[in-house]
Amino acid sequence: MDARGALTVANLGVLDYDAALAMQSEMLAARIDGRVGDTMLMMEHPHVFTLGRGADEGFIVSNTKTVPVRRVSRGGQVTYHGPGQLIGYPILKLEGRDRDVTKYLRCLETAMIDALAKFGIDAGRREKMTGVWVGGRKIASIGIGIRRWTTWHGFALNVSTDLSYFDSIVPCGIEGCRMTSVCEITNRAVSVREFAETMRESFARVFNYDEIILAGASTPELMASDG
Fold this sequence. Notes:
alpha/beta
């Protein structure tokens, strides 16, 4: 990625999916209009299944736990979000040579791979697939949206996630896909907040930001932090 200025990062704790989507929409419009700079929203969600644009509802094979379902304007198939999972929604303006969707996806993967390495996890990619894998299991999923070359939606990385919820779906529409988590691999307690601190540093390094600004957990505070 070309050199960039400051990245504002807000750790929002546990936030309802619908509220997070509304915040994303507001921040996306503000970034497109130039009222804010590049921003990363980091959080956890209560239990929810999300379907991307054109995703097949048949990939929700059962829903005995009555998890809410949302269809949204990201790419990709079905995924699960829930407690113990780090969600990252980068709202970035892609400019110049960085107006390349594939390059953006690969950079997201690299940032997660680098963060996982800090916890002793040897993660990588799988050919012709998006996301991050550890051996034969998937640890992180990506589903993005881009409007006027400004990104939204993002990634979900399993830290201490209850993986049994993935049994109700075909994750990312990949038959036979099995999920894993940081805690399952390392066999130790790792909090989402702890991992988020490492993730924001890896993200800033891969995306070539020269400064991280930590913002408050509300839209007005985020707006103020960028100008």
